[in-house]
Each structure stands twice: as structure tokens, then as C-alpha cells.
## 1
Amino acid sequence: MNTRKAYSTDPTDAEWEIIMPYFPSPSREGHPRVHSYRELVCAIFYRLRTGCQWEYLPNDFPPFKTIYHYYRQWRWNGLWEKIYQALHQKVRLQEGRDPEPTAAIIDSQSVKTTEAGGERGYDAGKKVNGRKRHLLVDTLGFPLVVKVHPANIQDRDGAVELLAKAENKFSKLSLVWADGGYSGKLVEWAKDNLDLKLEIVKRTDDIKGFKVQPRRWVVERTHSWIGRNRAMSKEYDRLPENSEANIHLAMIRLSLKRLIKPSP
């Protein structure tokens, strides 16, 4: 029985009851599992929120190598994404929306990498050497498709893979809003190949300074939600796949909060 002091990042009993069914049942073969799935998830949430390195997790959690093993295994088998997608549908239903969206917003954010290495590139427009977090989100701001790739890949090129994947997963999706970086041939490509309307929301030239742009602010807010987690303040992980898993984890945490304490 766990007797450690609870951390603010721990899922509550009510939150754990929501996600517990998605984890695999204990195997009858091999040695009995020493550490509970809940404790492993608590440690993974703690690391995501605080940004500490795996080996610097508090000693009252299970051994960090065990935690990372399950974190990586559940990334490999797609469990994090599966849990997030299930919670996303529950959030949409709670908000009175159809489980499958018909409209979305696309955008990318260039983020610096560290000396950890891995794929990276230079975004000349943002003057950032690192990676891009490319998101396609619904009108509530919850990601539909996530892709992390080198920052030197142009938005229009990165969007091809994102939109094609969305077309396969969400058959009702018919409209996507985007900024001027996605204009040009991509608009025609989306219409001809995916039967998808890509609407460019342009900034008015006579507006000076900061101005909230229609529709585009939704995905900007999503980037802010992700950035609240210190493990995502930069691209610390060597593998882009880990960054994608961390985005799913961040949205799992947000979805649980929404489901337990619905927004007004």
C-alpha cells in the first residue's frame, strides 16, 4: 500500500477511475508486478509538469528506469494516444459536440532543442534551431493530429502529412482554418486530394501591434496549454516521438480536469 505524500500532479481517485480501464490487465505469466500502474502514471505526470530528468524523480516513486520503461512501452504500443483520443471524445460529448469534428485549425510552433541531440533544423522565419510542433486541433482546442518534426520543414510541407492523417481518422472533417503560411498550392492540394476546404485567415494590414485573429487564437491557446508543462518548455527529448507522447500526456491531464470539473 502506498503511504507517500501526494503530489499536486497525482491524478485524483475520480480521474484515475476514468483512465484505469485503458491500462492492460496483469499478466498471469512471469513475476508479479511490484509497482502499480497508478504509481507509474503519477511519476510520469510529475516529470511532465516539473520538467525534471528521469533520474532526478523523487525517491518515493518507483525506480526511474522502471518508470521510463513503461513510459516508452506505452508510447510504442500507442496507449497514450489511445487514452487521449477516448478522453477527447468524452470531452466533446460533455460540451454538447459531436464526437467527430467537422472543422479544425492547423498551426505549428518552433521550439529550441538542447544538447540531447536528435532530429532538428533551423527555422529561418522564427530564427529557431530546433523542431516544430505541428498541431491540428478542433474548435475546442484539443489536438486531432500531432506531429513533431525538424523546424526547417516548411508549414505547407508538414501540413500534407498532418491533413492526410486527419482525413483517414475523421471522415466528417471538411473545413480547416490556417494562417498565411499555408497559402498557395496546399489549398488546391487539400481540395483535390482530400475534398477538404483550407480557409486562410489573413491578418489585416492596417492593424498595428498584437491583435487576436479569428479562429487562429484557438490553436495558439493549445500551444500555451502544452507549454505549461516544464518538460515541454524546450525539446529536451532526443526522439520526436517522445515529444508527441508528451503532448498526448499533457492533453490527457487537461481532459481529466475538464471531465471532473466541467468548465462553466
Note: The mean pLDDT is 91.
## 2
Amino acid sequence: MRVVSSDRHRGHAPLAEIESSGLQPPFEHPGRADAIHHTLAGDERFEIVEPDEWGTDPISAVHHPGLVDFLGRAWVDYQVCHPGTHDVVPDVFALPGLVDGMGSFPDRSLVDHELGRWCFETTTPITEGTFDAARAAVDIALTATKAVLDGESSVYGLCRPPGHHAPTALYGGYCFFNNAAIAAHHVASTTGSKVTVLDVDYHHGNGTQQIFYRRGDVQYVSLHGDPARAYPYLSGFAGETGAASGAGANFNLPLAAGTDDDAYLSSLDVACEAIATFGPSIVIVSLGVDTFHNDPISDFAITNDGLRAQGELVAQLALPTVIVQEGGYDVEAIGDNVRAFLLGITSRV
């Protein structure tokens, strides 16, 4: 299998994150992608290639141009006001209740104000190399997608930072640009065919759902921890099925704590039936291996064998498949877990 990877991800290297009301070392750090790369590079069944440069136009086709502009200058602008800062996070969030009954927020370019305008939570610092790393992740996703459109049966994009929590006009949840959504829109807009994004990350991809919720050409299917207990808490419920032309094209399968291989595969089988009914020309998998039983921020009980079985089940769709990396935070196991899923995908060859 071809693997698209770049060491530009290392430019996004936060020192800490604020999670569960505590300041702690970041779960999402360069060691994650390095561990995956090391595992796959040492296995002759994988061929690692660099991504092509795609520029920002494909990003702006999905994300608000203001978000793209802000992320491109945020770290530099912040240094003017707060020199020497390594991790840039908002002090305030521009929530509508702050101006309820008063109109709207003033259009200001002060970076402290803009941070609270474009970021929705506290775990996602901007560092000096964040924008370049986020752009590289998009380049990886699009390069992998082009390879599949050109005839490869499946290609893996080692994207970091991940993307599925980023909606149209916000960043957060470790995500800046929505790699899977940008790839899906590229396929739909250039080929005129239907696309499915299958999200198997432990956490619901709120960003991907928001981007495609009112579109009928891109189906979003997600298996994840029930948002009644699991991040991002505000989306991912079974009743969220799409709207307007996207009615019925959004399918959430929230799962219980302790979900094991058999229970997960049973739900994935249901998801694959929904995909087959939708009839896409291509599947883009948002691959999170944070479903693994030892993941530090999740509560499923999936094994390495279970991850391979997931890939084998997706392979039975017999559709061209792009896999883009999302979560997975057990760094010691992440490489083997990603490899297991990918080997499952290639079982149809």
C-alpha cells in the first residue's frame, strides 16, 4: 500500500494542553505520527511517498476564508502583542451570549479577539509551525485521494494534525483544517460523483458532520463514543440525520463504554450496509485508532486483531478507499494498530 507522509507535521509541537480543567502534556504531539511512520517504513508491504503541494484553494473551498487567513498569521500576530509565547490559546471565546440583545461583535483584527472568534475549545494551541503542518496534512489527504482517483485501490494519508473536529469556520479538538472533508469535497466537486466519509475514530467528527449536513452528495457515517459521555458532547447523537438535500445522508452510531471487537464489528456492518445503499464512488475513512483498549482518553475495548477485522469489513465494500489519520493516543501501540487496519483494507487485493 502507498503511504503519503511528510515530516512537516513536526512543526506543530505544543508544549501543553488544557483538558479536564488541568494543564498537561499534549496527547496530540509529533511522536504520534513519527511512531506510525517508523512502523510502516520498516514494513516492505508499504511504500512511503511525499505529498504534492496543493496550495490553499482546496482548503478555502471547504473552510471560511477568514479562518484560513487567520491561521496563516495567528502565531506571528500574537508575538507582536505577547512576544516569546510558544503555545497560543484564546483568553476569551466570542460566544453569542456576550452581546445578546446588543447586536453583534465589532469587526476587530486584534489577535486576542480573533482567537476567540475562530477557536471553539482549549486543547488546541497554535505554535510557530502549526499552519505549515496543517497545510501539509491537507496536501497528504489530497495526494492520497488523487492516487486513488488515478487507479490505486487504497492509499493511506498519514495526516497530522488530524482534522475531523474542524467545522467550516472554527478550529479545535486538535484539528485546524478538516483533511477528510477537503478530500471528500474535492472528489465530489471534480468528479460529480457521490462520496462517503466513514469515521471510525472514537470521538464524533463534529466538523465533518457540520460541513456536509445539508448536502446530499457526501454521506457522513460515524461510529463513536456516545456524546452523552464522550467528547465533543454536543453532536453525534443518533437523531442527527442531515437536513435539506442532505436529509438521510448523515448516520451516527453512538456506542457504549466498553464496546468490544464483536459489538463494534456488528455496528460497523450496519454502517457498511448504509454505505452500500448510498452508493458512493469512493470511501474516505477517517481512521482513529483511539478505539484501542489501552488508549488514554477513550473507553472502548478494541484489540489489534479487532482493528484488522475492521479494515477487512470495510474492504468488503469493494470501493476505492482513501484512509486519512485522525486520533489514537497510545503511542507505543499506534503504529501496530494503524498497520493492522491497513492490512485489513488490503485483504481484498
Note: Residues 297 and 329 are 7 Å apart (CA to CA).
## 3
Amino acid sequence: MLNNKVIVILGQTSTGKSNFAVEVAKQINGEIISADSRQVYKGMDLGTGKITKKEMRGVPHHLLDTYPPSKIFTVNQFQNNTAKKIEEIIKRGKVPIICGGTGFYIDAVVDGTIFPNVPPNKKLREELSGKSNEDILKILIKLDKNRAQNIDINNGVRLIRSIEIAEALGSVPETIKEKSKYQFLKIGLTLPPDILKERIKARLLSRIKKGMVKEIENLHKNGTSWKRLDSFGLEYRHVALYLQNKIKKDEMIEKLYTDIWHFAKRQITWFKRNKNTIWFDPREEKEKIKVLDKIQEFVK
């Protein structure tokens, strides 16, 4: 019985997670749940490097294109939605495969983290929406210095949410974890830094060539504010600046390449904290076969 087995496929951007997850799903009769904080939004395809229908090869994917960019998608929602999807997939007699690069989301599910139940504060969000991430961070430091030291300062949504919680509870409470009823096998894809840099650059140029700038321009035309685009970071931040004529195209590409590389380094720092992940280089066929064998053994 596959009643409590879940595969997790993680790694830095541009390592080939999505394609590997499809390969695994094909072999073990799986369905994929996306663990990406931006791919959940509609219309954000090239900007997030979202897998295409063709690349899915008929494998069902969940938590992609679920919310409009105007809505805020929280880690609590990810936990709840993922729990439902896991149950549905298992009831169909298939294996759930969580795949993505948002370590915070993955840990929330695997570690069973319990987050404070603080409702959104619309007034506070409106007050903070016009401020820069740096200014928002200063507010958080005054409210909760500990949380400010352990947060992604480029993630405007998370900064605002932390202030929301701190204002409601006095501070962001210590993390509480609840043992999951599932068994997880975590597989990590990793590449040497020089290879990863090349892939990041090639993938970025490819997405620009395919129309990433136009896609982001259309998001703005359809009502997504410059501030909201900025809050998504990386591609959305720099392309928004370019579309507002605040930076030149060459500068946009160079800054974006640098920021994606820095983001990739933060990703691996986060993932390497957990010692239970099986890491492999997807270019090495022998390594990949060993990992696929371990997955087959796990789901037996």
C-alpha cells in the first residue's frame, strides 16, 4: 500500500528538477505538486520558468496557475492545499511527488511546521504597500529583531506578513513542529557552481527570447501594479524597472543574472541544513540510476 509515501524533489533553480520529477512520475505512477511560491500564480509562466504542458508529458501537476497575481498566497495555504492534494493522489492509487525550489514551503510540509493563525490585516498591508523592502525591514527590526535576522529581505510579502504577525501577537512566535503521518524521501539535484552559472545565464536569455518581458508587461496592463511586481522579486523586479525606463535592457539582464545566481546560493544554503536529503548530479547517469532505484525501493 502506498498510503503514506511521498517523494520530495528539490534543488536550486536551473538544475532540472521539473524534468526529473516528470521522469520519476512516469516510472512510479506519480502526480506532481509544485512547491514554488511564484508558479502558483496565473500568467507568470516565462518569468518563473514554469513547466509547459508539453514538458509535463501527460503527468498531472497541481498548485500551478491557481491564484491571480493580485492575491497573496501564504505558506499556510500551501500547507493546506498540499495536504488535500496528497490525500487525493493517494486515494487514486498514485504516488505524490512534491517538486520545487521554495525550501520554506517544502520544510513547512515535511517538518509539519505550525504557523500562527493571524488573519490578514488589510489596513496594515495598504500602509506598507508603498514602502520599499528596506523600510519594511526596519519596521520589523523594531517589532521582532530575531525574526528580522532570519528572513529573506528580498521577499516583500514575507516581510509584511511577519509584521502582521508581530503586531498581532507581540512577536513572531517560535516554530512549533508536528510529526507528519507521511514518510518522505527527499532527493536533491545539485550541479557544480560553474555549470549552474552557465545554465542560469542560458535559461535567462532563452526566456527573454521567448517573450518574458512582454509577459510581464501584460501582467501590468491587466492590473498588476509595479509595486506588486516588485514584491515578486528577481525577474519581475528588474523587468518592471526596465519597462518603467529606469534601467537599460543590458543592465536589466546583467542585474538579473547576478541576482538569480545569489538566489541560487541562498537556496543551497537553505537546503543543505537538512542532512536527510539524497543529493546527486543529474548529468551523471550512474548516479541518476542509483537514485531512481532508491525511489523504487522506497515506494514498494
Note: The radius of gyration is 19 Å.
## 4
Amino acid sequence: MRFDGKRILVTGASRGIGRALAELLSAEGAEVLALARSAEALGGMPDSAEQLVCDLADSSARAALIAQLQGQRLNGVVNNAGIQVTADFAKAEAAPVDIERELSVNLAAPMYLAAGLMPVLARTPGSFLVNVTSGLALAPKRQAPVYCASKAGLRSFTRALRYQADDAGLPVQVTDCVMALTDTEMTTGRGRGKLSAAEAASALLAGIAGGKDEIWVGRMKLLRLIHRLSPRLAQRILRG
């Protein structure tokens, strides 16, 4: 698969992996629809990229975005946007956590975008939809239970959506990108051996180009093997 001339929506494009994706796709000649929560956050985006502003946690704004895109040509969607909140629900003095917002951005938004935009993608053979999940979808860490649950749900949703697309004969590649720990604002101060955002984005695009149903990035290839052999060992590794 080549990306030049394709019109591709990238959510969470203001920073990290999303910005790296927008930059790499633009460099390859794609028409990038770079989506973020604010116009200011999209500053410095390649001139060729079209900037879209939408708070994906806002159901009305999300519906308006989908309606806007349904009348346009679209060859690809990368649901990359995500937020992670540290929370310990076992502590009586734990600070209130906005569970609904975290689930809305990480899980509900990709579901709604898929439901609304699959018919648009299906109009053009060779289109794709990628949902970015995580190794934490296989085995959670204790510090971010809502994030882990949202990624596990998104992984399951992506597989079911792929079954539906295959059974319906839709010409849309539905892919789960199991992302490794990447050096972004979200992971500041956590973990070692992180990929750069550019490395993570390159691996994702290589997987799409290769027609993969699942893209296992970096160390997630090893985690996949460990999880197959011993789910309990994978859980101990990621528990935190």
C-alpha cells in the first residue's frame, strides 16, 4: 500500500505519535486530516495537512465531525487519541476521577468514528481503519485501571469489527495496532527503553502498508509470545 494521494484522518494529532503520523504521512504525499482538541495545539503542522478541531469526549462535537466527514472522500482513519489517568480506587482518600471522559476518548470515540465512517471508507477499495491499543489490553497495570480497561475493550471491538467487515465483503482493512511504550507527554517519568514517537509511527505505517490485521510494535512482539506461553507471566511483567 502507498499513502500518496490518500486522504487520512489522524486523531490525537497535536503531539506524540499522532503528530509523528501526520508528519510522516504528509511527507509521503497523503492528504492528512489532523484532528486535535484545540487549534492552538495543531500549531506547526505541515502546511498540506487539514486541521480539524474536535473534543472527542463531547458527544455533540463528535457527531458533528462524523456528519462533516460522511460527505467527503476518506481512505483511512487512525484512531490514535488517548488519555491515561493514574487512579487508585482502593484508597479511601483517592481524588475524584473523571472515568467517563477517559472512556469517552479512549473507547467510545473510536467506536463512534468506526460506526459513522466505515461506510465512507467502504466506498474506496484499499481503505483502512486502525485502532491504537496497547500491551496493557492484554495485561493491565495497577496504576491506570480505566485506561487498561478502555484499551482491552477497544482491542475486542476492533476484532469484532474486522469480522463484520470481512463477512460483509467490505474493502476496508481493520487493524489493531498494539503500541509499545513510547516517549510522549503521556509517559513522562515512566518506564525505560521507550520508542521515539517517530519510530512508533513508522512501525504503525509499515504495518498498514503490509496489510496486517494486527501490528505489534517494538517489545510488544515479545509480549505477544510471552502472553501466549504464560498469561500469568505477562501479567506480572506489566502489573507495575
Note: The radius of gyration is 17 Å.
